[in-house]
Design a protein that fits this description.
The chain is α+β, with helices and mostly antiparallel strands. The protein is built from six helices and eight strands. The longest helix has 16 residues, at 94-109. It is globular, with a radius of gyration of 18 Å. Residues 70-74, 76-80, 111-122 and 128-135 have low confidence and may be disordered. The chain binds Thiamine Triphosphate (V4E). One of its GO terms (molecular function) is magnesium ion binding. InterPro entries: CYTH-like_dom_sf, CYTH_domain, THTPA, ThTPase_euk. It holds the Pfam family CYTH.
């Protein structure tokens, strides 16, 4: 995420055992592997995530993802397959993040909740993660002021691929993720500077998916879907009812 505001367009897919070989066959080049820890934050009554807003601290860096469009009618003119792709605005500047979070909370609540209005968050046997000591633990003053608590924490091993040249796949990146709670997922993604047209990104993603032989029309669960389903069923059920997941 180079810029502080961009739109991430992505399609998730189920990884076959031979996905790395398939990627190499279509000209993808592995650009490296890394491990990172994510901590996600929300109010105890899920004010952000119920608005499809995702506040995350990854290895000490804050990131906010929020929807750019939510309704099918906003997608007029887009091909059917676009429904398999998600698009989220990404903000990485902490001051902008704090401003946005405050705005979302005002919209969602009439007025901001204070730290005294907490409710217990019930988690079921969440997995323990190691490392990332530089990531705030949730006691930063702005988190406390906005009543934000960590609701999910996991570590991912990621192997990333890109395509060289100026062809159909230029700017396309493929990530193969393995989360420490035992879930693997692939993502084809294109980062679009805010304000630029996303149609070309959608076409590139579709083309890459075709070349990888991804024919399924089913939405594929992300790491967060599976994490919440397993460890925070109450939160998961609320997001399902609100059609967020
Ligand atoms: C947007 C979102 C979440 C935030 C994390 O999203 P995701 O891209 O799945 O995580 P990750 O680790 O791959 O981030 P990256 O490194 O690419 O920045 S968690 C849940 N959502 C909502 C959501 C959704 N509604 N539909 C889909 C397909 N994905 C995510």
């Amino acid at each position: 995420m180079e810029s502080t505001m961009s739109v991430e367009v992505e399609r998730k897919f189920v990884c076959d055992a031979d996905i790395q070989k398939q990627l190499e066959e279509i000209g993808a080049v592995c650009i490296g592997q890394k491990q990172f820890q994510d901590k996600y934050f929300d109010t105890p009554d899920f004010l952000l995530t119920l608005r499809d807003v995702w506040l995350r601290c990854r290895q000490g860096c804050w990131e906010l993802k929020c929807t750019t469009v939510t309704k099918a009618e906003d997608r007029v003119g887009e091909p059917q397959k676009a429904e398999l792709c998600s698009r989220y605005q990404e903000i990485t500047n902490l001051s902008q993040i704090q401003l946005k979070v405050r705005e979302f909370m005002k919209e969602g609540n009439g007025e901001q909740k204070t730290a005294n209005q907490t409710h217990p968050v019930v988690h079921q046997d969440t997995p323990k993660t190691e490392g990332a000591e530089n990531c705030p633990t949730g006691n930063e003053s702005w988190l406390m002021e906005l009543n934000l608590v960590c609701f999910a924490e996991f570590t991912t091993q990621r192997c990333s691929f890109t395509f060289g040249g100026e062809g159909d796949e230029s700017g396309v990146r493929v990530d193969l993720d393995q989360a420490d709670f035992g879930y693997c997922v692939g993502e084809i993604e294109v980062l679009v500077p805010k304000g630029e047209d996303i149609q070309s990104a959608l076409r590139k993603i579709e083309k890459t998916a075709q070349r990888l032989g991804l024919s399924g029309d089913q939405r594929v669960q992300g790491k967060m879907d599976v994490y919440l389903q397993r460890y925070c069923p109450e939160h998961y059920a609320k997001l399902l009812s609100a059609s967020i997941l």
